Amino acid sequence: MRGPSLHPGLCFLLSLSVVMDQKTTASCNCPQHAYCVNDTHCTCEHGYRSDFEQQFFTFPLTTCQDINECDPPISIYCGANAACKNVDGGFHCRCNPGYKLLSGDTQFQNSNENTCQKTTSSATTKDMKDVSRNPVLEPNELQHVVETFQSLLTNNTPLGTGEKGAVATWATEVLQTVESAALETALKSPEQKIQEIHNNNTVAIETRVVTDNCSEEGQIFSLNTHMNSVDIHCNDIVQGNIQGPTAIAFISYSSLGNIINATFFEEANERDRVYLNSEVVSAAIRPQRNLSLSKSVILSFQHVKTDTLSLPRKNMMSPFYLQRKPCRRKAFCVYWKSSGERGQWSRDGCFLMQVNESHTICSSTHLSSFAVLMAFSHQEEDYALDVITYVGLGLSLLCLLLAALTFLLCKAIQNTSTSIHLQLAICLFLAHLLFLTAIDRTEIKVLCAIIAGALHYLYLASFTWMLLEGLHLFLTARNLTVVNYSSVSRVMKKLMFPVGYGAPAIIVAISAASRPHLYGTCDRCWLNLDQGFIWSFLAPVCAIIC
């Protein structure tokens, strides 16, 4: 009787284990481009990352997006005469037009495999073919567009007049002419999905033709020239119900920024040093010019000037050259705004997204010609505060000098207390004097760093001597209750100089050894606020006060 009664229970346990196993498997329902780990979590495949940039996830709505290794912050370097091309889940390197690998392959993985060699003109056309293009191509007409721009640049009669209005009109005509020529070239051969020319020092062009009316939902096209790039949604290229192919052109001008420079910025401030820190790029669409976009385009600019260019060559091997960053530097994303016969750089519809030492990323709600302006701003001067500072510190210097002379020359009052007061007066006097005379000596970066380090040390020493004075007063107050006070006083006399001058020296030495580039800013010889470096002064001061 017992055997049959166990059978239903055994079946129930087996079915329960099957259900639990199915539940565990179902809990690891990973999205596209992801796989299951330990039957509990999902992780994206190599070359993809999750929406929330988590390595492991269980949220069912998480998706894995392609990582663009060719754009900042990764920016794969493929070596000379080559460029990085992003693909789903990875990337590859290709030789620039006019070059080919010695092995005859069309792509490679990194700069170590780069054997790109210059080819003949007949081979150039062949190397410019992409797998998506028609195998039978006409000669590359983009070269004629480049020659057109070079002829316009050579015939620069308005530039010699120096009149900004004439220069702006000429620049507007050049930008529109090159855009139209590049787009017409692309639309003449719609079977050539991509056309590009990068091996020119003056201008680089890449065009793309869309004929399938955005077959993929949310498809984004990326065009790259001269380490600059633009990302635009396919729906903004095809422009709704327009019949026939649509083309987009992305153009980078290497030398145009020297002509329409930062002096054409409509918001230029005379107190700020503004300069153009990128190539001028243009993005345009045909057959109709799409001025308003459903989604913003993303533009990535490579800087033409780095922070190190402003330092003397003799300081190139110093840590200040290698690590110092400019302070209060503002980046502006601008576009060329043409109105009538005038033209100027404007920020309307252009927004800064990210900036680092080598690249700036902007977004724009319209298409035009774009650039990045940099400005080193300066703090507004408050003359009332300056007067208060100079008068107050001047009186303080006078009083400190008189106090130091009194403690030093009056033998009758000399003791441990006056000795501490003398050291405190000396430290404060030197600190205030250095502050008044050298706080704004920022012309020589190394000298400014030394001044900042000296101020750091002198003010720390002043607070340390204040601490010793408080400790001395405490011991004096306990004189009647402390049996061995005389021995304690002798120990303090021996230790007060090593502590008063040694402890600040140790703090400054550690700070200077770990962050030498953070001594001095662009307008003051004091501690930089970056990386919390100011706490190397505030932390000891707060500890002494508390």
UniProtKB/TrEMBL annotation:
Keyword flag Cell division: no
InterPro entries assigned: EGF, EGF-like_Ca-bd_dom, EGF-type_Asp/Asn_hydroxyl_site, EGF_Ca-bd_CS, GAIN_B, GAIN_dom_sf, GPCR_2-like_7TM, GPCR_2_ADGRE2_ADGRE5
Gene: ADGRE3
Annotated G-protein coupled receptors family 2 profile domain residues: 385-546
Name this protein carries in UniProt: Adhesion G protein-coupled receptor E2
Family: Belongs to the G-protein coupled receptor 2 family. Adhesion G-protein coupled receptor (ADGR) subfamily.
Pfam families: 7tm_2 (PF00002), EGF_CA (PF07645), GPS (PF01825)
GO CC, one annotated term: ruffle membrane
Location of the EGF-like domain: 66-105
Keyword Cell membrane belongs to the record: yes
Record domain GAIN-B: where: 193-380
Gene Ontology BP, a term: cell adhesion
Main location: membrane
Organism: Ursus maritimus
Keywords (A to Z) from UniProt: Autocatalytic cleavage, Calcium, Cell adhesion, Cell membrane, Cell projection, Disulfide bond, EGF-like domain, G-protein coupled receptor, Glycoprotein, Inflammatory response, Membrane, Receptor, Repeat, Signal, Transducer, Transmembrane, Transmembrane helix
Signal sequence coordinates: 1-26
